[in-house]
Amino acid sequence: MQEDVYTLDIRKFKNTDKFREASIHFEKYGYYTSAPRGTTAYYEYWDEETRRCLYGYEAKDGESVTGYHYFYLNYCKISKSEIDPITSKPVKIMGFPKFYDYDYTFFKTVEEAERQGKHLCVLKARRKGYSYKISAMLIRNYYLIPASNSFAYASEKEFLIKDGILTKAWDYLDFVDENTAWSKKRQKVDQIMHKRASYVYDIDGVKTEGGFKSNIVGVTLKNDPQKARGKAGKLIIFEEAGKFQNLKVAWNIAKSSVEQGSDVFGLMICFGTGGTVGSDFEGLRDIFYEPGGYGCLKIKNIWDEGAQEPCGFFVPDYYNYGNEYMDSEGNSLASKAMKVELDKRRDIISTATDRSTIDRHIAEHCFTGQEATLQLTGNIFPKEEIKKHLAYIRNTQSIRNQKQVGRLYYDDNGLLSWEPSEKPKDLTKYRLDKETDRSGEIVIWEHPIDNPPYGLYISGIDPYDHDKSQTDSLGSTFIYKRFQDFESYYDMIVAEYTGRPETADDYYENVMKLLKYYNAKALYENEKKGLFQYLTTKNCEYLLADQPDIISDIIQVSKVQRKKGIHMNQQIKDWGEIKIKEYLLEDRGDGKLGLHTILSEPLLEELMLYNDKGNFDRVMSFMMVIIYRQELHKVHIKNKEEEVFNNLIFPDGVYIENSYKNLYEDEY
């Protein structure tokens, strides 16, 4: 079956009550059909309702809804807001859902995923009622598909019960059993985490099970993704996927249970909400932005500005925002809702005392997938400004044209030369799927000037040692151009080499060439010894910067003393994060900030998604640059102070002992 990038079915509707005539009739009379139980008319009515709930319903005007949607609209009471006619205030009541345009879009997308033999990742704003819709899907299969198994997975039991999807599903069971022809006994299994539609009868003293034999089973995986193994289901729901430890492992294990070769006989859907705190959210984010790699429906990303790649199903805050932001036919008044939400954001921004409060509100009431995935743990960087700059780069061809990808090689004269690649294979994204070649290539935005003086270019390196790794860790190197009076552009990244070629030595060789090409010294993370050893064997140890003196300002007593590089620990890392933030927000004039000098798209992505638990190799390499930059600035200031001091006190430049000079430090 052809696999396409799906464009969401978003449209305006008229006369939407035609899709919920059954529930409207029930609300008016208290029953679905007046036909007496057991009559032909009674069975014909429920046969038709079964058909609609399984295969969808097409109205006389040609508009239709899916089976899941029809069942939800007509057989599932939800908690919803209504205006009290006496007090004119909103109150919560239990009633059938109204037709909403984006609910239609969701259920149509579910149908498309099943048609393509794909699964679905759903990322949404908070309080959109999806726990009710998910529960309705479980119940529809339980009542109408014999011997079907539907599973609800969560990392913790509380996400399924309490106010979770199973609690809502069990409420639906009571209503359907009481008011429809689909009622099912549950004599064999009737537990809080497992319902089975069957009855038990006696044949010559032998207990025998009969009935529909469909199941709804709740499973808490906690830290054991292997619990997802072997559970073949018509429908598998991953609830609160943003709080799932090892989500991707569990997803792939469950996926093998519903697929056999090219045949897919079950649908998996993971649901998550923007604003979820913690590193576990990374799994949901990865599946959302790399749907193809996890067997999910690839959807055209119409939300993130400048997006070129598909994503999962996204639910923005301004759709289905509330009754007063919907018209009488269930169409969202999106512009009106967006304006209200933007006003709320302005109020929060003006009153919040910390950035995390702002980030949380934006992520929970998100307009885009990027907003929903704002990192709320350990990220002090200006994510919103970075996101806008990243979109600008991706939509500005002149900037993209500055980028050159290729390799450095020694020509016949033994000089380093540049050769552009015909088929560039640089790594353009932070998140890489399994098929991506991780070798990487050198990226240059500005070549070095002729005979560059020492100190004009500096470098930061986050290396790796082992040729093979079970992690996503890469080696990353940045070349940074410092201030020079006669150049228009300075204090900016001019080259990058990030990748993991076949051997570590291949990586070190390319790093060595890059440093020589720019006459640059590099500060590197020296916990991994391979780079130092390689350069030493090549008599190029001089390319590595000494351990910065500035470290003594951060760590009063350092137990690690190494000649070259820096040994990263939490104190240095925390300080480095602050210095990166200061750099990103540096005022460069004309409304430009330091972050606007960064043209590396994957580095910008890493800065947005950064936290203290994941692999952020480019951020660590950039941190080396910033620390080295700070060290050289400190040395420059110190030298200037000494020059001024000597000229004032000893105009002939006479050498003075430190002990003597200290007498004058307070004065000058």
Notes on the structure:
The C terminus is likely disordered. The protein has an 8-stranded mixed beta sheet with strand order 7-8-11-6-12-15-5-16, with helices on both faces. It is α/β, with parallel strands linked by helices. 40% of the residues are buried. Helix 12 runs antiparallel to helix 18 and helix 14 crosses helix 15.
Widest sheet, order of strands: 7-8-11-6-12-15-5-16
How big a fraction of the residues is strand? 15-25%
Average pLDDT for all residues: 88
CATH C-level label of the largest domain: Alpha Beta
Strand tally, please? 25
What share of the residues lie within helices? 25-40%
Shape: elongated
Tell me the span between the first and last alpha carbons: 79 Å
Total count of domains: 2
Structural class based on helices, strands and sheet pairing: alpha/beta
> CATH topology of the largest domain, anyone?
Nucleotidyltransferase, domain 5
Contiguous uncertain segments of 5+ residues? 485-489, 643-668
Radius of gyration: 31 Å
Which descriptors apply to this entry?
668 residues, 25 strands, Nucleotidyltransferase, domain 5, 20 helices, 7-stranded mixed β-sheet, 17% strand, Rossmann fold, 35% helix, alpha/beta, 2 domains, single chain, disordered C terminus
